[in-house]
Amino acid sequence: MKSSVSSRFNAELLEQNYNQWCEDPQSVSSDWCAFFEGFELGHTQLKKKADAAGVAAPVGDTVSEHSLNFRGKVVSLVYNYRTLGHTQAHLNPLDEGGARNPRLELSQFGLDDSDLDREVSTQFFRTGQTMKLRDMVEALEETYSGYIGFEFMHIHNTEVRNWIRARIEQRFQTQPRMKIDKAQVLRWLLESQLFESFIAKKFLGEKRFSLEGGEGAMVVLNTILEQCPTAGVMEIEMGMAHRGRLNVLRNFLRKSLTTLLYEFTPNYVPDLVAGDGDVKYHLGYEGFRELPEGEIRVSLAANPSHLEAVNAVVEGKARARQRMIGDDGAKSDRTKVLPILLHGDAAFAGQGPVAEVLNLSQLPGYRTGGTIHLIINNQIGFTTMPEDARSSDYATDVAKMIEAPIIHVNGEEPTELAWAAITALEFRQRFGRDVVIDMYCYRRHGHNEADQAAFTQPHIYKKVDARKPIGDLYKARVVQEGALSQQEADGIQSEIEEALEAGYQRMVKHMDAGDRTVFSGSTAEPQPSYSHAPVPTGITREALQHVGKVLTTIPEGFNLHNTLAKRFIPRRKEALEKGTHFDWAFAESLAWGSLLMEGNPVRLSGQDVRRGTFSHRHAVFYDSETRERYIPLTHVSDDQAKFCVYNSLLSEAAVLGFDYGYSLGCTNMLIMWEAQFGDFANGAQVIIDQFISSAESKWQTPSSMVMLLPHGYEGMGPEHSSARLERFLQLCAEKNMQVANLTTPAQYFHILRRQKKRSFRKPLVLMTPKSLLTRPEAVSTEADFLEGACFQEILPDIKDFDKPEDIERVVFCTGKVFYDLAEYRDEKEIDNTAIIRIEQLYPFNDQMLELILSQYPNAKKWVWAQEEPKNMGAWSYIVPRLQEILEGHIRYAGRKPSSSPAAGSKAMHKREQLMLIEQAFEV
Q1: Could you read off the pLDDT of 490-516 as tens digits, one per residue?
Q2: In whole angstroms, what is the distance from residue 376 CA to residue 71 CA?
Q3: 794-920, what's its fold?
Q4: Is 0.70 surpassed by the pTM of this model?
Q5: Which CATH class is domain 541-785?
């Protein structure tokens, strides 16, 4: 059994573990392993220096020589400072200093005051010079328990851990204290502070969710920005919640001050292309920051009040930008586009999307080269204190799941904030991994400026009220240090105040003149209106046959699974040869292949999508002996676009959010997310509600994202029958998205291609089938895919009636139930009923339906048939639309209202299914 390091030194245990580690490093715990690695690293460096100087190494240069016991105690002391020093760092600006951790007292290591003047060789700490123990303790305090606390000993990777340790410990030794431009830092702090106070004065009582108390965040952000050219970063993709957002928009992204102030005026109406807009502290922005070395593109994603929901969207946008600028190739390490996420402490600890997106960070289909997370740690969540908001010591503990280094830093120490920012960027660029800066600060006001925080935190807010703003504190400090004169510091403040007043006066002047053009500055994307006009999506026979041949050709020597070799591939070959029986998965691959040939890249991600939940897709073939992969769609043509298909982590919100963000940044790509079962989309409801269905209306950010949601009642119980069609239809308005429930492979082929063949972009929500994947009737012919064919939003009856005037009843339906209805009609030889399929439910094409119904002039009976319970499915949505067209009563045929989507018993399912089919044809 592996042992672990004790905080109290035990010489016998040390020697035992050291000998064991020498024989086999894996035989001891990770703590001991890290301990001995550090010891050996220091020892090796010391010997190299001695050899280079031509002198003997200091006495005691091996672990077995004299003073092993004392040296072991010192090594344990150093190790524990590296591990626990952060627990007594002075992080909270509202406190005098960090409380001492008794586990770091000398007595814990078998040491006492009498040892303080003993000489120790520091080959295992810093660079190997000899110093007194008391000096070492002071150095350890300065390094690990100052205004920054480090957590990095949880990292298993030796190279990463040693790099961080060296970076930390060299900070006070081999290089002078980092020099910063104190005038520039003062400007950043005063810009932030004075912006907030100016708005508070000009717009009394207006919510702004100020950054006051956390102005140090601007030092972190601006320091990162200034280092970007040196680090090779060309673009920054950002996400954050509402606190401090207006400050970041103005003072980091440089959004027009005049426009921002105008948004506070009581008569402000957004100058929208379409839609309803959003509150000002949810809006995004994109701009360019000019630096001496060039410009850096900075984009802040629009964000709802669902605090951490935007994280995945930002990661997807960053990945898309990396693709667009060539930062994602085989020779690229994703260093040119940097994601930065700002979090609140309570949200980082409490919101599930944080862990889900952290889990994305190193996965092949989702990594973005590492994200810098900045936590604006106000030490409170609304009115809830940390002890009631999390079970962990730190808000950041969730980040340890991916072994991210964590830098806790006092938010009123600008030098330390700047060092943390530079170190975080260097780490990210070097290792391509996430890093967290946990900036301890406070919230000067309550949740908003009208909220009275002293109701619930009276003691804290006595301290807050008595504390000067950080800009004032730092201004006094730089003057006292002599870095700036009082006149110079006052001049910076005056310059900022004058600029704020000038911006306000410009706003007033233009308002008085009725000139609103100056208030533009929106980065919204206008697009054409939605149209029902048919879109040519058919392809040539040559193209279809070519793609089909690629899909059915296996490399020589590749050991394809026997079932695929004997059934899957031959079935596709037969369809190509005979021009019939193209099934759902084949149609999907043909759509993808044809788009790839035409220059449109394709991306599909989700749980188990490479094979497909129902073993139908097989977009990736695996060698049965070697598991070598072969992806046919990457071999369509020499100049084809890129095809990406990724199995995702077991998350809906993070993956759907990521792919949605990807769709915003890569508009020519067909981007699809597939749920394992349609009801799994429940786990991503925030992304659906706040982004996919409403983002265009709120933020003018169109998307052509496709959601594939397996849906259909086959007796699989309440959890795997319904994709909750009713929920999507309830979200439909203002042509915001498309919702469809298709019945043929060709329809699926055309609707996918249509996504890339129109001048406007709309999300597409597809109720995809399960049983129809293999149902013999649910197939298409070659002609259905060729030029001249296109997607039809409503399908007329497939039956060729001799006398359409004899049709008395019309049954309307959508999706899989059509085949059950048609089968029953044939069995019972019913010849007075037409069945019309509503393939696209929204936007609803009423003109097309009226044209189809004109064939049946004598029809007087109207029925809507569905598999879902009456309070679910499309019934509530469709009935008013049909009544408006038909001007008559619409009868319902389907399951009765239910609190559960479906019966758990397959026998009960069959009875209910037969009953609803019979109801549809009742006299």
Answers
A1: 999 999 999 999 999 998 988 888 776
A2: 41
A3: Rossmann fold (3.40.50)
A4: yes
A5: alpha beta
